[in-house]
Amino acid sequence: MPFSQLTALNALSPLDGRYAGKLTALRPLLSEYGLMHRRVQVEIEWFIALSDAGFAEFPALSEASRGLLRSLVIHFKEEDAQAIKDIEKTTNHDVKAVEYWIKRRIAGHAELERMQEFVHFACTSEDINNTSHALMLKAARDEVMLPMLDRIIAKMTAMSHTFAAVPMLSRTHGQTASPTTVGKEVANVVARLKNARERIAGVKLLAKMNGAVGNYNAHLSAYPEHDWEAFSRQVVEGSLGLSFNPYTIQIEPHDYMAELFDAFTRVDTILIDWARDVWGYISLGYFKQKTKAGEVGSSTMPHKVNPIDFENAEGNFGIASALLTHLAQKLPVSRWQRDLTDSTVLRNMGVALGYVLLGCDSLMRGLDKLELNESALASDLDSAWEVLAEPIQTVMRRYGLPEPYEQLKAFTRGQPMTAELMRGFVAALDLPQAEKDRLLAMTPGSYTGLATALAQRV
């Protein structure tokens, strides 16, 4: 039977159901409410700017009128959004509904009501929509997404420094390889994330307010002597804090959106890679997970503490990347001067970024549960003396000993190695005693190159 109202239990999307509480920061910014809020803001700022343009028919508004208009934006509530939706039931046009709502709100105010036909003056719906979408993305990026990414970077930077000198056996192709440190492995990811963050933060959010097909046709028909391009630039950049795009069709072409969504996809990819690595390190016993009273890891195996946070992160980042990739590939494509395929797709910006945020939340919870198991790390290293074949043959090369690589290959490949065997091999080499002593003192745990310094520097 149909549900009487939407709840967390019957929501179609888990973003509005099971995980709704984790996305409260994004909801007012990227929902339909958020879109309506920004539409009102754009319409108001355009209207106020028109009053300052010097048109004889529209004298400059009083400070009281400006304050009243901007209060509609500052105090915009869910009931206001619902009122706009109610108007839309008649207009069947969401932007026109915003225009009518504003006119209703200024009705009875003599100064404003007299000028009401300058609301939405010379605008096409996309002048309002594209600026609103840019404002939504600006708020979501600056107020929610980048702060979350910064928390992950800060957490992992602290891990890099804390574990900078803790040696760890590397595994290339899944096989034992030259040791590193736990901190250096985390630092590798931090460096990638910082670069990815810079790309996200560096995307210029573009907007246009140039009419039905991007040529200011209607604007010039009313005021042919006015510099409409400069005026629009001032509204976009000065009033709204966005970057002006002078060349568009009816819609802003969304190339900046593609760039932004691609940049978020890079973050998803990096964090999927990291989540999988941590999952593996937990499996090897390098990390243990803090337990919580009452939690169950398996319905039948009481001992289990599963790495579910990292698994959830990986899954949600995957969904996010699929959506972001579609947005990036679809949005810059339009038939001729305009079609509506972008409109319905744009309504999913919040869904795509919601899954990014959900993945980040899961990852942070997983990182907060980790405890390093240094005994497991040390045990693995002590079982892998074969990794010292690399430094030994490299020193042999320096001193011109015959076939160093081949000798070590024959000695170590596929053979169980111990400290005694490796040290016996070194003792028999024709090397300067100081070099022999240095190699004899080396252990798998001490053979980490610059890993500690690199981890501390990130």
TrEMBL record:
Residues 17-315 form the Fumarate lyase N-terminal domain. Its EC number is 4.3.2.2. It catalyses: (2S)-2-[5-amino-1-(5-phospho-beta-D-ribosyl)imidazole-4-carboxamido]succinate = 5-amino-1-(5-phospho-beta-D-ribosyl)imidazole-4-carboxamide + fumarate; N(6)-(1,2-dicarboxyethyl)-AMP = fumarate + AMP. It holds the Pfam family Lyase_1. GO terms for molecular function: (S)-2-(5-amino-1-(5-phospho-D-ribosyl)imidazole-4-carboxamido) succinate lyase (fumarate-forming) activity; N6-(1,2-dicarboxyethyl)AMP AMP-lyase (fumarate-forming) activity. GO terms for biological process: 'de novo' AMP biosynthetic process; 'de novo' IMP biosynthetic process. Coiled coil: none annotated. Keywords: Lyase, Purine biosynthesis. The keyword Lyase applies. Belongs to the lyase 1 family. Adenylosuccinate lyase subfamily. This is Adenylosuccinate lyase. It comes from Sphaerotilus natans subsp. natans DSM 6575. The lineage of its organism: Bacteria, Pseudomonadati, Pseudomonadota, Betaproteobacteria, Burkholderiales.
